[in-house]
Specification:
mainly alpha; Serine Threonine Protein Phosphatase 5, Tetratricopeptide repeat; 0% strand
Length: 131
């Protein structure tokens, strides 16, 4: 529980740093720090219902993180980012609703270790086909 609270606090602090327009400095500090700041900013935007900006920040953070490959120390954040993107696409928050894109993001969240999302996609697909 303490780790989760500290993780959220770190994201908020780093998100604020990003929002204060120090992006060029952060990029010079390295991609891992920059990606963490982007994820923090995206989470803050998501919880403040600024969905369009959150989508942009999540996608940017995931792009940078995937470019780093195995060197990415923030792999644990991928699941959260994909889950949030799936939720926004599924419900048309900040973007036109797109169930297929939402499914893709939920499956990516599931591939990061949370099989509940894969199960949820399977149930949705079953219900759409047979009910």
């Amino acid at each position: 529980m303490k780790t989760h609270i500290l993780n959220i606090a770190l994201k908020v602090i780093l998100g604020l740093a990003y929002l204060l327009a120090i992006t060029p400095i952060l990029k010079k500090l390295g991609k891992p720090f920059y990606v963490t700041c982007l994820l923090g900013a995206a989470s803050g935007m998501y919880f403040k219902h600024n969905y369009a900006s959150a989508i942009e920040a999540y996608k940017k953070a995931l792009k940078f993180s995937e470019e780093m490959g195995d060197e990415s120390p923030i792999d644990f954040c991928h699941e959260e980012a994909y889950k949030a993107l799936g939720h926004m696409y599924e419900n048309g928050l900040g973007v036109a609703a797109d169930k297929l894109q939402a499914e893709e993001y939920y499956l990516r969240a599931g591939s990061r270790g949370n099989t509940a999302y894969e199960h949820s996609v399977a149930i949705r697909s079953y219900n759409e086909k047979y009910k």
